[in-house]
Design goal:
Number of strands: 8
Structural class: alpha/beta
Helix content: 25-40%
Length: about 220
């Protein structure tokens, strides 16, 4: 996978015109489609589940990146892969048996990611970093779109990059929350490989142009 990937978050799409928005992303320079799944328990919001995932899979022509913000994600990872997920990321904070869950995802044929909330130290990943394909750093507190970017994220990117290199891992670093055209270049410079952008893309007058600008 190449660096400087943009993964628009479908959480910010128009659900009344989901097919239209996915087809726009298919045409655009977006690399991945980011799917945020929330259960109202791990985070204080509910998004969508398998019926919407089926619709996304039907129309998407790009890599599908699923972020599970749910308790007991191990119960559902295989079904999300069956419904088209190319990568499934689970929260460190939600997984009692993280190693087992990561390997269940990989054994099913998908790529596996681990997610850290803003207050969780990067060092907690020391024993799993060699087994994951991606580390997703939350740059807002998960649960809602449109939040303000947490500046400490730049330091966490650097720490994550050091951990990856020191363990001969090939994991990518993804950043999710408050990403926009003002901070995208700095995030890439800090070591991020993938940026999730929701409101920055879908609230703009020209989403395809915004995606192009995020990659510069």
């Amino acid at each position: 996978m190449k660096n400087k990937l943009i993964a628009p978050s479908l959480l910010s799409a128009d659900f009344g015109n989901l097919q239209r928005d996915i087809e726009m992303l298919n045409r655009s320079q977006a690399d991945w489609l980011h799917v945020d799944v929330m259960d109202g328990r791990f985070v204080p919001n509910i998004s969508f589940g398998f019926p919407v995932m089926k619709a996304i899979q039907k129309h998407a022509e790009k890599f599908i990146d699923v972020h599970l913000m749910i308790v007991e994600p191990e119960k559902y990872v295989e079904e999300f892969i069956d419904e088209g997920a190319d990568l499934v990321s689970v929260h460190y904070e939600a997984c009692t048996h993280l190693h087992r869950t990561i390997h269940r995802i990989r054994d099913k044929g998908a790529k596996a990611g681990v997610v850290l909330n803003p207050a969780t130290p990067v060092l907690m990943l020391e024993d799993i970093i060699a087994d994951v394909d991606l580390v997703l750093l939350m740059s807002v507190n998960p649960g809602f779109g449109g939040q303000k970017f947490i500046e400490n994220t730049y330091r966490k990117i650097a720490e994550t990059k050091d951990l990856i290199l020191s363990n001969n891992s090939t994991a990518l670093i993804e950043v999710d929350g408050g990403v926009n055209t003002q901070n995208a270049a700095r995030l890439f410079e800090a070591g991020a490989d993938v940026l999730v952008a929701g409101n920055a893309v879908f609230a703009s007058e020209n989403p395809e142009k915004t995606i192009e600008l995020l990659k510069l």
